[in-house]
Design goal:
The chain is an all-alpha fold. It contains twelve helices and two strands. A two-stranded antiparallel sheet has the order 1-2. Helix 1 packs across helix 11 and helix 2 packs across helix 3. The longest helix has 17 residues.
């Protein structure tokens, strides 16, 4: 319960074959999937953190009009970068993009590094973003795990309990055994797409799933309770707010970064 079962061969090789075949036929046509250019893939992955796909599309397209490549982002003043980001929230993501672009210009000739160790030194590059950029842009066989992938694997492997990042250390070796070296990016995107379109958190579409034959949760009828549904707790917060005016002017105090 709550961990990857020991001593079993969790996924056969044909799991990858089925997944890739389904993904190539059913994937959504998204702007960042039309390129393998590292800069564009990096920007899309950062925007997609904490933000839904439909919300990201117009921001991504507008961003590329303003900052079409890494040098243009590095040259831009931070205020212009933050203005372009306005509405996406979590502004630290934009600041890290800007800081990393400047470092890549200074240390790597304006290119996104293709080495995991070097990338991890850049602002904003955690394990997920590093593996995503390297697999999608450079074809490195590095699996990625987001909330969708975690949910798919928990159901396939029959792992009970709540979904949380602590499971990833056990899930990564499972994926490393089946990720195809010929198409790691498509494999990673296929798992994410499967979780977004079919193996959804609510109302999973098991009859449409290309890997249903490998899924322990579907076999046992537990797909609705794996992962354990989260209970949202509502906390009542009371706050006092003062608005200070002087004629038509309103005092706004900027919050520290």
């Amino acid at each position: 319960r709550g961990h990857v079962p020991d001593g079993q061969n969790p996924l056969p090789r044909r799991f990858s074959t089925r997944l890739l075949s389904w993904y190539r036929s059913h994937r959504r046509d998204l702007p960042w999937r039309r390129t393998r250019e590292p800069y564009r893939i990096w920007v899309s992955e950062v925007m997609l953190q904490q933000t839904t796909v439909p919300e990201v599309i117009p921001y991504f397209e507008r961003w590329l009009e303003l900052f079409p490549d890494l040098p243009s982002l590095a040259r831009a003043p931070l205020r212009s970068v933050l203005r372009a980001w306005q509405g996406l929230g979590y502004y630290q993501r934009a600041r890290n993009l800007h800081r990393a672009a400047k470092l890549m210009m200074r240390r790597h000739g304006g290119h996104v590094p293709d080495d995991a160790g070097t990338l991890r030194e850049m602002p904003g590059f955690g394990p997920y973003t590093t593996a995503a950029v390297l697999s999608l842009a450079y074809g490195r066989p590095l699996p990625v795990i987001d909330a969708n992938v975690r949910r798919v694997l928990m159901r396939v492997l029959g792992i009970e309990g709540a979904a949380h990042p602590g499971l990833d250390t056990g899930l990564l070796p499972v994926l490393q055994k089946v990720i195809p070296r010929s198409a790691p990016g498509a494999f990673n995107q296929g798992l994410m797409e499967l979780g977004a379109l079919v193996c959804r958190s609510a109302n999973p579409q098991c009859l449409l799933c290309p890997v249903r034959e490998f899924c322990r949760a579907a076999e046992e009828g537990r797909q609705e309770i794996i992962p354990k549904p989260r209970r949202l707790e509502v906390t009542k917060v009371e706050a006092a707010v003062a608005v200070i005016r002087q004629g038509d002017r309103v005092l706004i105090r900027k919050r520290p970064e």
